[in-house]
Amino acid sequence: MKPNPDTEITGTATRFNLEGDSKGAVLVVYTEDEDGKIGRSWIRFDEAATRALKSRAATLPDLPAEDQAR
User: Fold this and answer.
1) Which of 3, 10, 57, 68 is the most buried (most CB within 10 A)?
2) Global confidence as pTM
3) Smallest Cα–Cα separation from 7: which of 40, 30, 52, 49?
4) How far is CA 9 from CA 1, 23, 29, in A?
5) DSSP sequence for 23-40
């Protein structure tokens, strides 16, 4: 992945995924704009940030089943 730090992310997030590798984790977000164009953006987290995110996520309450289907 080649970084492009000055790119504006527009549209509505339609899907996201957290992918891990030996360097930490990458949050991949897919967006769709009003013209139907699909975009893909990502944020890389190093190992320390990944551990902190996982720790924080473990303290969040579970979503009700009806919210998970959205």
Assistant:
1) 10
2) 0.51
3) 40
4) 16, 24, 10
5) TEEEEEEEEE-TT--EEE
